[in-house]
Amino acid sequence: xSNQLWRAFEEVRPYAARTVRWQLELCSECPTYERQMALAAxxxxxxxxxxxxxxxAGKRWRKExxxxxxxxxxxxxxxxxxR
Length: 83
Description:
Number of domains: 1
Oligomer: single chain
Order of helices and strands: HHHHH
Number of helices: 5
Helix content: over 70%
Structural class: mainly alpha
Distance between the termini: 24 Å
Number of strands: 0
């Protein structure tokens, strides 16, 4: 599912995919709090939800995507940012 979600993210936000990939590499090399926050800023909850919707456009929603959206919403603040 992660590969499919990444492809959907690239389609929804093609201009951000390169920067997100770079930030992911930085986080994997040295996962500091600042780098993780920079990554979270690049992928706000709204964008992830758009990617999941793009994945299921015109199809029946898979259980794992529904569960993912529930987790995203759980960690989303009332202002739409990450908690």
